[in-house]
Specification:
There is one protein chain. By secondary structure, the chain is mainly α. The protein is built from six helices and no strands. α2 crosses α4. It is elongated, with a radius of gyration of 19 Å. The protein starts with 13 loop residues before the first helix and ends in a 10-residue tail after the last helix.
Length: about 150
């Protein structure tokens, strides 16, 4: 881009996401698997140093949800960042369907957990909306054929 904006990197694989987070969280530093495992432990999670090293080597591609949560703890981000894109899209679509049912009155008595009075952070809302736009672009319109 010529206007000086940083182009968003392509983060499709777990390895790409973890490498990106290492670069952004620990700029200019090379961190060891042991350092990261200790950091996760300090923050209340569990991740072995060898498992972290295997993620960085590309040997682990589909870890458990617990491992994703440990990565989130270590980097200080929402663990869902590390999920496969299709899973995140599914989560967002489910959330939006829930909101639609809430608006129509099909669901009432909502109790939020982990949110303050401001609700979702704007960055998360913006991310969710971008995923929805991407999903809509890939989905053909209902009743796409001509009636005759």
């Amino acid at each position: 881009m010529d206007n000086g904006e940083e182009r968003a990197p392509e983060l499709r694989t777990l390895r790409q996401k973890v490498e990106y987070m290492v670069e952004k969280t620990f700029p200019g530093r090379k961190i060891s698997g042991r350092f990261f495992a200790d950091l996760v432990k300090e923050r209340g999670g569990s991740l072995s140093h060898s498992y972290f090293s295997n993620i960085l080597a590309g040997k682990v591609t589909q870890p458990s949800e617990e491992i994703l949560k440990a990565l989130g703890l270590g980097f200080g981000v929402d663990w869902r960042f590390f999920k496969e894109e299709s899973e995140v899209v599914d989560d967002v679509v489910a959330g939006l369907q829930f909101l639609a049912k809430r608006r129509t009155g099909e669901i009432s008595g909502l109790a939020g957990r982990g949110l303050d009075e401001d609700g979702l952070p704007p960055e998360l809302l913006q991310f969710a909306m971008s995923l929805l736009r991407d999903a809509e672009e890939r989905t053909p319109p209902a009743g796409g054929g001509q009636q005759g």
